[in-house]
Amino acid sequence: MRIDLVCPIPQSIESFITTGIVGRARQRSIVEIVLHNLHDYADNRYGHIDDEPYGGGAGMVIRCEPVFACIEQLKAERTYDEIIYLTPDGEPFTQALANTLALKTNLLFLAGRYKGVDQRVRDVLITREISIGDYVLSSGELAAAVVIDAIVRLLPGALNDAQSAQEDSFQEGLLSAPVYTRPAVFRGLAVPEVLLSGNHEAIRRWRYEQALARTRQRRPDLLATNGER
């Protein structure tokens, strides 16, 4: 997979793509991530990429020219499965969407700042808009990092234990069950006996029941969406 990220401040995400699971996936050539600085495509000698909004109001807006120049150049080099803009009014990002995007070959992300990008960018260039939550960040790079991390960890070979990603919260429409490790007893608190039994079917059943109970308590909306079990 190749991921291109077009953004105003690529330095803010450089450490993220060189460390942890994403960094290892790049080292193993599982994913290629390329950062593109919007300021390099500015059409003025000062490198400015933003301007005041028409109609007045607070904040600044990223201009059309640098975004079109950058994305059109990238599109001339390869075909993208999706060109994604990170925005609070996009479709909610879910594990199911991460699973879908992880099957793609080429993805391009546009991360905004300020009050966002000129609407003409969204109308002409963007194929999908994604929100990571009902809140506003000062940096679209942060939102892009969240989505990229969720995608990359699903790629074959990215995790040392491939089954781990398949057992994450939300993969089955439920939150994860509680997890334990050594010691078996800590300060009088014991690990549930079923996890020490070696009975894999009993363990599987216990984990499902715990996941269902936790979801019903903390995120009943998930059960409503997927149908009460």
Report on the structure:
The protein is of the alpha/beta class and 229 residues long. The protein has two domains: 2-152, Alpha/beta knot; 170-226, Trp Operon Repressor, Chain A (Orthogonal Bundle), CATH 1.10.1270. Helices cover 36% and strands 18% of the residues. It contains nine helices and nine strands. The chain has helices at residues 14-17, 20-27, 64-77, 95-101, 119-124, 140-152, 162-166, 200-218, 220-226, and strands at 2-7, 32-37, 50-51, 61-62, 82-92, 106-111, 128-131, 185-186, 189-190. The strands form three sheets. It has a five-stranded parallel β-sheet with strand order 2-1-6-5-7, with helices on both faces. Helix 8 packs across helix 9. It is elongated and about 70 Å long. The protein starts with a strand and ends with a helix.
Element string (H = helix, E = strand): EHHEEEHEHEHEHHEEHH
- Provide mean pLDDT, rounded: 93
Approximate shape:
elongated
CATH topology of the largest domain: Alpha/beta knot
Q: CATH architecture of the largest domain, please? A: 3-Layer(aba) Sandwich
How are the elements arranged and paired?
Elements: E1 2-7, H1 14-17, H2 20-27, E2 32-37, E3 50-51, E4 61-62, H3 64-77, E5 82-92, H4 95-101, E6 106-111, H5 119-124, E7 128-131, H6 140-152, H7 162-166, E8 185-186, E9 189-190, H8 200-218, H9 220-226
Parallel strand pairs: 1-2, 1-6, 5-6, 5-7
Antiparallel strand pairs: 3-4, 8-9
Helix pairs in contact: 8-9
